[in-house]
TrEMBL record:
Annotated source species: Micromonospora arborensis
GO biological process: L-tryptophan catabolic process to kynurenine
GO molecular function: arylformamidase activity
Protein name: Cyclase
UniProt xrefs under InterPro entries: KFase/CYL (IPR007325), KFase_sf (IPR037175)
Pfam families attached to this UniProt entry: Cyclase
SUPFAM superfamilies (UniProt xref): Putative cyclase
């Protein structure tokens, strides 16, 4: 079995609209921190120089959003109310793990200009690869945007799905849709420009807002989709169990039999 990493890194040195703060305490600083904590909480005096090389353990402190790096959007991310079930959308820690280890399908939807991909384009891809999504398959969209990861262009130059395209996949029984782009919707600037020119509210984040009436998850900011065949592999993308959160990071991978 081959394991292909489909995850983009969380990197404080890369460009992010919401900057990542990453503070590293060295092993020496970790020793001083531990000594201070022992004194404050337990009244124990401990000289850190007793430790080998005067070092204890390193420690990383991070400040970031749950949508930084490769992550899974939960239904509660899409809105406070749901048009299905109890009317209360589930958080990331409440979703069944079975959704996130399923056969995968890659659709090439790359385009030269930012915008949306519709149901007709997806149907053409089904015909090209000779396969349609089966219930609970994980469908991955290869937009090519991952080539710009870590730069401002990554957040402005990509394609997303329109409403009918999302519903086409959900009608097939898909519960998880992934993309190598920043969002499953088109770029913010593209969405707002189309709305301003048409006044059509249906162009406003249709992929996300579809989740208010139909329960499903998105995996955004994937990578290495070009390394995958159209199908014949499994996707594993278990989300981190953040209580009450609308998203959780994931180390997404594909499993291929050699």
């Amino acid at each position: 079995m081959r394991i292909i990493d489909l995850s983009s890194p969380i990197d404080a040195a890369a460009y992010e609209p919401d900057p990542v703060r990453h503070e590293v305490l060295s092993p020496r600083e970790g020793a001083l921190h531990m000594s201070s904590e022992m004194r404050e909480h337990f009244g124990i005096e401990f000289d850190p120089d007793i430790l080998p090389d005067g070092e204890f353990l390193s420690l990383d402190r991070l400040s970031l959003t749950s949508h930084t790096g490769t992550h899974v959007d939960a239904p509660s991310h899409y809105g406070s109310r749901a048009g299905y079930g109890t009317g209360v959308p589930r958080h990331i820690d409440q979703l069944p793990l079975e959704w996130f280890h399923r056969p995968g399908l890659v659709l090439n939807v790359a385009a030269e200009e930012p915008g949306v991909v519709g149901a007709a384009e997806l149907e053409k891809e089904f015909a090209r690869i000779g396969r349609t999504p089966q219930p609970q398959d994980i469908v991955l969209l290869r937009t090519g945007a991952s080539a710009w990861a870590g730069t401002p262009r990554y957040f402005t130059d990509f394609v997303g799905l329109d409403g009918p395209a999302v519903h086409l996949l959900l009608d097939a029984g898909v519960r998880v849709i992934g993309t190598d782009a920043f969002s499953l919707d088109a770029p913010f600037t593209n969405i707002l420009a189309r709305w301003q020119s048409t006044g059509d509210r249906s162009v406003l984040w249709p992929a996300h807002f579809a989740g208010r009436d139909r329960e499903y998850c998105q995996v955004e900011r994937l990578a290495n989709l070009e390394s995958l065949p159209p199908y014949g592999f499994e996707v594993v993308c278990f989300p981190i169990r953040v209580a009450g959160a609308g998203a959780g990071w994931t180390r997404a991978v594909a499993l291929l039999d050699d």
